[in-house]
Amino acid sequence: MKLRQVVQVEWADAEQDPRWLDHDDVAKMKAPVATSYGVIVRRDKEVLVLAHSFIGTDISTLLIPAGMVRKVTKL
């Protein structure tokens, strides 16, 4: 695998709340913003795939749907 730029990706994550909530609580809810680091191995209109661990030519990845990506910063 060729060397690639390390990036920081901020992305909106999904969250589940197991509690019973009233409408006021629901109105205050916001999507949590996650931060992940690695190298981009695929990015298109559907997904951003971030590789964060490597063993030889094998990689461990995180697939983030493109619509959830908030910001990508080169490090």
Q: How are the SSEs placed, and which strands pair?
A:
Blueprint: E1 6-12, H1 23-28, E2 33-43, E3 47-55, E4 58-65, E5 69-74
Antiparallel strand pairs: 1-2, 1-5, 2-3, 3-4
Kindly describe this structure.
The chain has 75 residues and is mainly beta. 8% of the residues lie in helices and 55% in strands. It contains 1 helix and 5 strands; from the N terminus they run βαββββ. Strands 4-3-2-1-5 form a 5-stranded antiparallel beta sheet, with no helix packed on it. The longest helix has 6 residues, at 23-28. The two termini are 19 Å apart. 7% of the residues are buried. The mean pLDDT is 94.
Into which percent range does the helicity of residues fall? under 10%
Q: Segments where pLDDT lies below 50 for 5+ residues?
A: none
Largest sheet: 5 strands, antiparallel
Report the structural category. mainly beta
Mean pLDDT: 94
Described by the principal axes of the CA atoms, the overall outline is elongated
Portion of residues in beta strands equals: over 45%
N-to-C CA distance: 19 Å
* Radius of gyration over all CA atoms, rounded: 16 Å
Order of helices and strands: EHEEEE
Order of adjacent strands in the largest pleated sheet: 4-3-2-1-5
Number of strands: 5
Output the number of helix runs: 1
